[in-house]
Amino acid sequence: MEVIIKKNYDEMSKEAAKVVKKRILKKLNLVLGLATGSTPLGLYQELVRMHKEEDLSFKKVKTFNLDEYYGLDPDHPQSYRYFMNANLFSQIDIDLANTHVPDGLAKDIGKYCLEYEEEIEKYGGIDLQVLGIGSDGHIGFNEPGSSLGSRTRIKTLNEQTVADNSRFFKNIDEVPKYAITMGVGTIIDAKEIILLASGKNKSRVVAQAIEGPVTSQITASMLQVHPKVMVILDEDAASLLKKRDYYKFVVESVEKF
């Protein structure tokens, strides 16, 4: 696990965008796993800038999103399909047919989730997965207690997640209580992973995920067993890491070679 600590959210987002750009230039038909929420917004804004100002093309890129609220129409302003279209897809040259966001209105959920997994496999698996981390340590919507080998499925959201996400809705009662999400096992299958976190409010759970034990109670901790994970943090999110100085030393040492 490589831990990169940047000064602030803006620098963190730009660092992540550099990694994504590098991977796309290396493989034009990159299979890119994407996340939603406030954390990756800066990354998406920088990718849009790179597309417009640096001619970064997404024409052959395939994308798969981690999750979607169950019960929300894709045109709902708080659906993740709407979020992705508004904040990234509509502003770059990607073919919408190459973008995949779980269907929040799927009727046969079990069948649909299996098909989502098969679609990922059809394209050879996810090359680079972008993740955020919830305040309780979840990745995707894999809440505390989720199986570390889980696959795409429907999950009941816990009270903390509902409360955290209520800021995007008029009131907490409007927040969906269920979501379709890639499983921890699905996420870990990605060839490479980037985890982004910013702000003091994420510092405790970031420290637990990176330096604590691997546990289903902090599903992001499973990233410790992955062979190629890059964690990009701002100073605030990294503030409780015990080995913070060592992580900075490692990055500085690598840059010299």
Automatic annotation (TrEMBL):
Catalytic activity as recorded in UniProt: alpha-D-glucosamine 6-phosphate + H2O = beta-D-fructose 6-phosphate + NH4(+)
Record-annotated active site: 67 (proton acceptor), 136 (for ring-opening step), 138 (proton acceptor), 143 (for ring-opening step)
Activity: how regulated: Allosterically activated by N-acetylglucosamine 6-phosphate (GlcNAc6P).
Residue ranges occupied by any Glucosamine/galactosamine-6-phosphate isomerase domain in the UniProt entry: 11-224
GO CC field: cytoplasm
Pathway listed: Amino-sugar metabolism; N-acetylneuraminate degradation; D-fructose 6-phosphate from N-acetylneuraminate: step 5/5
Annotated PROSITE patterns: GLC_GALNAC_ISOMERASE (PS01161)
EC number(s) from the headed UniProt entry: 3.5.99.6
UniProt-listed InterPro entries: Glc/Gal-6P_isomerase, Glucosamine6P_isomerase, Glucosamine6P_isomerase_CS, NagB/RpiA_transferase-like
GO BP: carbohydrate metabolic process; glucosamine catabolic process; N-acetylglucosamine catabolic process; N-acetylneuraminate catabolic process
Residues spanning the membrane: none
Site (Part of the allosteric site): 146, 153, 155-156
Signal peptide from the UniProt entry: none
Keywords linked to the UniProt accession: Allosteric enzyme, Carbohydrate metabolism, Hydrolase
GO molecular function, one term: identical protein binding
Pfam families, A to Z: Glucosamine_iso
Job description of the protein: Catalyzes the reversible isomerization-deamination of glucosamine 6-phosphate (GlcN6P) to form fructose 6-phosphate (Fru6P) and ammonium ion.
Protein family: Belongs to the glucosamine/galactosamine-6-phosphate isomerase family. NagB subfamily.
NCBIfam families, per database record: nagB (TIGR00502), PRK00443.1-4 (NF001684)
Classification via HAMAP family: GlcN6P_deamin
UniProt name for this protein: Glucosamine-6-phosphate deaminase
Source organism of this protein record: bacterium (Candidatus Ratteibacteria) CG01_land_8_20_14_3_00_40_19
Gene: nagB
